[in-house]
Design a protein that fits this description.
It comes from Herbaspirillum aquaticum. Keywords: Oxidoreductase. This is Amino acid dehydrogenase. InterPro entries: FAD-dep_OxRdtase, FAD/NAD-bd_sf. One of its GO terms (molecular function) is oxidoreductase activity. There is one protein chain. This protein has 428 residues and is α/β, with parallel strands linked by helices. It has a domain at 10-62 and 114-144 and 203-275 and 372-427: FAD/NAD(P)-binding domain, CATH 3.50.50.60. The chain has twelve helices and 21 strands. The protein has helices spanning 20-31, 75-80, 93-105, 109-123, 126-136, 155-159, 162-170, 181-186, 209-222, 265-271, 335-347, 396-411, and strands at residues 12-16, 35-40, 57-58, 86-88, 143-144, 148-152, 176-179, 196-200, 204-206, 226-229, 232-238, 241-247, 250-253, 256-259, 279-288, 301-303, 308-313, 316-325, 360-369, 376-379, 386-390. The strands form four sheets. Strands 4, 6, 7, 8, 15, 16, 17, 18 and 19 form a nine-stranded mixed β-sheet that branches. 48% of the residues are buried.
Length: 428
Amino acid sequence: MSTSPEIAFPRHAVIIGTGAVGLMSAIHALDQGLQVTLLDFNEAGSQEASSYGNAGWLSSHSVIPPVEPGMWKKVPGYLVDPLGPLSIRWRYLPRLTPWLVRNLASARRDRIRTTARALRTLVADARSLHLEVAQRAGVAHLIDTSGVLHVYRSRRHFDNDAFGWGVRRELGIQWQEVEGAALREREPDLDPAFGFAVQVDEAGHCRNPGAYLQALQAYALARGACRVEGRATGFRVESGRLKAVLTEHGELACDAAVICAGARSKALAAAAGDHVQLESERGYHAVIGGHEHAARARTPMMVSEFKIIATQMETGLRIAGQVEFASFEAAPDWRRGEIMRDIALKLFPGLPRTLPAEDVKYWLGRRPSTPDGMPCIGPASASGDIIHAYGHGHIGLGCSARTGRIVAQLLAGQAPEIDLAPFSPQRF
């Protein structure tokens, strides 16, 4: 692994990718006095960007990786159920197998505890870190600080998740139980079949991730960042020092770069000397609008039974979830979006049973996921001038604020505020 080179200022950093991680990195790099160029082929917050359509959670308790003990027993069932909560397209299975084997191997209780301890350092204070930046960008109204719910049919169903909640308790995460009439009062539109929930007060959510990212980019540009439209294809490194980012339109001279291109980061990581295990973990959402005064989720809620999150956004009720493994370019399977819609109808009986097509919008995004559930953050092997910052999987928005701070610290030659060893890009 390359050691960080001696840094001379002013330094020009190219931020590759304008998702949540890229924009937070840019803002904090500007705070450090760096010259910043944003490089992307999509507009920040556009529907083509994966940061646009997530569930909006800023959940500092999201420390349990998506795998669970005994997960391997369920994979055969998932393979034969194309509309289950996890789907793998058969043609993609050979390419996915090395990632999947390592992913299932990480589903041991000791490994999950180790992962949770590391992730907690990254997501702690997510809500307050986002609120601070949102206030500076003039969009504090987009950050809600009133907590989130995890909803179950009964206490018995909650007890089935005892291992994960026990790990959270070990890390100091607290919650309050809400059940029966108290839950009905809090969420009157929720199906009464769900009678138990836990409220995590330290969490929050973003009311409109797309608008939030647009505002963050506008704030960065107003402070002096530049934006270049295009795709990064590699790097020109001489004697361990970065000289330029290579793009489809030619070289972009700089002396530092950050790879935060989400699920597209794998090829850039290889160009920077590191072969990471990164897959495009596709997720879908359905947004139901046009019925603002019908049924709604008053508090963002994770419903473990369906493996989805329901969040009331500025644009409507968003139901987000599903895991689909397929090639990056594979066509969407919009039946998965329709599953999200149908789950919404089950959870909120007050919604119209027949929704007009114009009131339901479907979306597909691609999470950048590593097999061990932890992102890649740190210097590249080819040059310490290149920083990896991707692979946050299901918790990219929540992690982005602290990741951006860490990236800026690395760019400025400072010690990062948390231990980055668990997130080493060279661990694969």
